[in-house]
Every structure is written in structure tokens, then in C-alpha cells.
Write a structure and sequence with these properties.
It contains 3 helices and 6 strands, in the order H-H-E-E-H-E-E-E-E. It is α+β, with helices and mostly antiparallel strands. The protein has one domain: Nuclear Transport Factor 2, Chain: A.
Length: 149
């Protein structure tokens, strides 16, 4: 029995209405995973002191806040890492979470490791809030604020 256009349209609308929430949830999970991957890529770039990768992972308007209260722009954040004046022999992220708000994502974690600055090694155990922005289809760091825990 042939189906009328009206019945076919109703079937399409019903299917999209029923499948829409599942598709949206899958997309949300995919975007969270993409942000998590960028957090990991940033951590690897910090560990390696890879200036080019750090540049690609961050937006030009970056605001990078440290637990000491120091706030750096993009160039000031990248320079000591890329020059190896500051290195991180180890970094572990725990208690991770990501939430999405449109083209922005909020990533939180506990950052534990060691930092070597001008030859002096210090332990690091801080909380971190990162704001990522979807820029031309990829997630890039817009802001970061660390805090003492």
C-alpha cells in the first residue's frame, strides 16, 4: 500500500523527534571527549616544552592564571616552557570533569607534579579551571585559573 506524502512526513518527524535527544547526547559526549583530548594534548605539550603545540592549543586572547596570583597572556605563558627555563618533569591530572556551554567548555581537574624553574624543583598540587572555546571546529584554551587546595 503506497504511503501518502503527509504520512511519510509524519513518520520522518516522529522519528527525528524520538531520535533527536539520543543524537544530541551522543554529540555532547563526543564534544566532551574532544575537550578531554585537548586537555591531554596541552599537558603533553607542557611536559615537552613544545612551543608550537602550545601556540596551536591556545587562543591569542589567552588569560593564564597561576595559583600564586600571577596572570599571563599567551606569549608569557609559552615563553618559559618553550625556552626550557621552566620544565615539568611530571604532571598527573585527577578528579577531571568537563561541562559544555554552547561553543565553550569548562574543564576542571587537580594538577599534581613537579616544576623546575631556573634550576629549582618545587612540588605542585593545585586545582585548575580551564575554559576552552571551539574555534573553527577545534577546541582551544581561552582561560585557565589555578588555585591552592
Amino acid at each position: 500500500m503506497p504511503m501518502s506524502r503527509r504520512a511519510a512526513l509524519a513518520a520522518v518527524l516522529a522519528t527525528s523527534t524520538l531520535m533527536g535527544p539520543a543524537f544530541a547526547a551522543e554529540q555532547t559526549q563526543d564534544q566532551r571527549a574532544a575537550v578531554e583530548a585537548q586537555v591531554d594534548a596541552l599537558t603533553k605539550a607542557i611536559l615537552a616544552g613544545d612551543g608550537a603545540a602550545l601556540d596551536m592549543l591556545t587562543l591569542d586572547g589567552l588569560s593564564y592564571g597561576h595559583s600564586s596570583g600571577v596572570v599571563q597572556d599567551k606569549a608569557a605563558f609559552i615563553a618559559p616552557l618553550a625556552s626550557k627555563r621552566q620544565t615539568f618533569p611530571s604532571i598527573t591530572l585527577s578528579d577531571r570533569s568537563v561541562s559544555l556551554v554552547g561553543d565553550d567548555a569548562i574543564a576542571r581537574h587537580v594538577f599534581t607534579g613537579e616544576v623546575v624553574t631556573d634550576g629549582k624543583t618545587s612540588p605542585v598540587h593545585i586545582g585548575v579551571l580551564q575554559v576552552w572555546h571551539r574555534d573553527a571546529g577545534r577546541w582551544r584554551l581561552l582561560a585557565r585559573q589555578a588555585f591552592k587546595i
